[in-house]
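Continuing the series of single-chain predictions for the mutant panel. This is the parent chain; the variants come on the following pages.
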Amino acid sequence: MLSRTAENLYWMARHIERAENTARLLDATYHSLLMPGHNQESPNAPSWEVPLISMGLIEHFYELFTQLTPENILQYLVTSSDNQSSIFSSLAAARENARTVRGAITSEMWESINSTWLEFKDMSDLQLNPSQVGKLFDRVKRRSHVFRGVTVGTALHDEAYHFIRLGSFMERADNTARILDVKYHILLPTIDDIGGAVDYYQWGALLKSVSAFEAYRKIYRDVIDAQKVAELLILRMNMPRSLHACLDEIDGILNIMITLNNYEARRLSGEIHAKLHYGQIKTIIKRGLHEYLSEFINDMALLSTEINRSFFAINHDWFSDRPYFS
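Parent structure:
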């Protein structure tokens, strides 16, 4: 497969996953503002910083906006063409990637992406009301689910399929790690809140943002506990958005595609996977969850760079998008 084709398939999947992840994070943030104990009268409440911090975009946001308001954040993360990680930009990039490799994807996959873009292409003109964005986020998530289902159900499981799945799980792993790290490192409650209603609702919002609330209930059958949430989202291999589950997929895909040229990418993924496969939550917490997740994000950045070098960096500059790992 040509490196340019592989690159476009990989980034097509990453951009779709990124749009969904952004919608999930914003939806969870909005609902957290409605929780008991939140100061509704403060438009600059720290909660609205969470998506920006999680995505590593806080500095870029303040280059474009002077005030941290719900309206500005929604404009920046949903409709802005100046932010390459906004939902609008992610969907636009995914559609362009798909158009470039139209012959490498099925007609159903193209129709799914193209119809999504046609539905959202006028998004940049919308004036979003913070109290009415829930339906928009649900539409983005549903569209991503449809594309994923169409891909699994119609695409030949060949090299192209592997690059699509590789892009999806690389993006998903980074997103889960960032969301969990922000919760621990930025949003730790005061001593009075630990174990209380505010803490419960915050952890519940986190679980819902990665579709893990019901899974938590089925596995632990207990009140929401921070350590168990971390275990679920890091180590549980049967939780679809956990770090372990993502690395299972990434490592398996790279193992299928291994050659002498990409051995280093396979080695790095195997090393990250082994830490998750044999890790214990007590050891992680004792070391420090923030330190553990920071190392994971850095390791994934190295793996992302190595995937670029191994598969895409052949006679062209592959970066048509600002790396999400930066």
